[in-house]
Specification:
The structure holds two protein chains of two kinds. By secondary structure, chain A is mainly β. Chain A has no helices and eleven strands. The chains are: A mainly beta, B mainly beta.
Chain lengths: 115, 108
């Protein structure tokens, strides 16, 4: 079955540590996205990529980095520069650019906690 | 001002009730809209698209009012399984803007 797989489901980060969240899709979607969700707030866009080897900053890119070396994969690194990383991170993909008909398909998310 | 605003609720309704949510958006260039459903600690899942003419999918009806820049979702004959948070989404170039969601609890 096609879908998006995020791992790990739960992740604990120590102060000053970089961590990488995995996102893999087998839907053959061109576009992929990373969002952050905090309680009481809407999803906020961190980074997005519309084609391989190209990605763009979203609204809250500071303290994060991404790569898109393969169409199927869009990993997110939360660096030590991100001062408040505790949140629910969601990866999504779409056939074309955002909102072209079918909307997004989301992964099941990674819950990151700073310890 | 948030780009997409929703009443956070919670809406607590009995089974069988009809409930309606509204959502307003600020970007008049938005052309497409969606409603997503999100269960507690889970990912959002697409519930339905919202078309200019309005659209219906079983017990769910979505309406768009471009002049007033709001979107509505009507749920008829509420089921216990409808309990969730409903996210309103407005599409802007290269992104979708999400509301913070409206929480619905359907009680026996």
């Amino acid at each position: 079955d096609g879908g998006i797989t995020q791992s790990p489901k739960y992740l604990f980060r120590k102060e000053g540590q970089n961590v990488t969240l995995s996102c893999e899709q087998n839907l053959n979607h061109d576009a992929m996205y990373w969002y952050r969700q905090d309680p009481g707030q809407g999803l906020r866009l961190i980074y997005y990529s519309q084609i391989v080897n190209d990605f763009q900053k979203g609204d809250i890119a500071e303290g994060y980095s991404v790569s898109r070396e393969k169409k199927e994969s869009f990993p997110l690194t939360v660096t030590s520069a991100q001062k408040n990383p505790t949140a629910f991170y969601l990866c999504a993909s779409s056939i074309g650019s955002a909102g072209q008909g079918s909307g997004y398909t989301f992964g099941s998310g990674t819950r990151l906690t700073v310890v | 001002r948030k780009e997409v605003e929703q009443d956070p609720g919670p809406f607590n309704v009995p089974e069988g009730a009809t409930v309606a949510f509204n959502c307003t958006y600020s970007n008049s260039a938005s052309q497409s809209f969606f409603w997503y459903r999100q269960d507690c600690r889970k990912e959002p899942k697409l519930l339905m698209s919202v078309y200019s003419s309005g659209n219906e999918d079983g017990r769910f009806t979505a309406q768009l009012n471009r002049a007033s820049q709001y979107i509505s979702l009507l749920i008829r004959d509420s089921k216990l399984s409808d309990s969730a948070t409903y996210l309103c989404v407005a599409v802007v170039p290269n992104d979708m803007r999400f509301g913070a969601g409206t929480r619905l609890t359907v009680k026996p």
